[in-house]
Amino acid sequence: xxVKLQLLFLGFAILIVIAMTFFMYAxxxxxxxxxxxxxxxxxxxxxxxxxxxxINAESxxxxxxxxxxxxxxxxxxxxxxxxYLAQQLxxxxxxLFEPEINIMLGSYYLSYLIDQFGDLKIAVCxxxxxxxxxxxxxxxxxxxxxxxxxxxxxxxETRNYLKKVLKNINFYQNCFN
Length: 177
Prior knowledge:
This protein is an all-alpha fold. It has 2 domains: 1-30; 31-176, Lysozyme (Orthogonal Bundle). Helix content is 68%, strand content 0%. It contains 8 helices and no strands. It has helices at residues 2-28, 34-44, 48-59, 79-88, 99-117, 120-129, 131-140, 156-176. α2 (34-44) packs parallel to α5 and α3 crosses α8 (156-176). It is globular, with a radius of gyration of 20 Å. Mean pLDDT is 85; it is low at 15-27.
């Protein structure tokens, strides 16, 4: 009887650990708007796990998020950047709080940055710090895409942002594959 109770308790404990693990992943790695992410991925040639990772890092999938600097929505697009992107996409009206629009504009911008810099890590840094700032420190430090790392990024916020996005990509790859 004692062995059966111990086995029952062990089984119950394992179930609790599994449930807590699932809860923690759902808390730290939410995944919403998969259809919009997949559409933007195919349209702008950015892997869906990259888009989801940026959304997680920017807003934790909160479509109503507004930063202290004025960035809006899931992918935290600045209104001035959104205006330029909307012109490029021939959008006459847009709402940055609308998930589909925000994901489309943010993914288009991410694709543009990847094309501009030719490297995902540098593009992610540019998404966070701005392309002009990134070009400046790349030139000042004579850094190429082959040797960018967390130690030669001069902005702590951008260093931490890059680490978070790369960590998120590892998780979201499993969701989209």
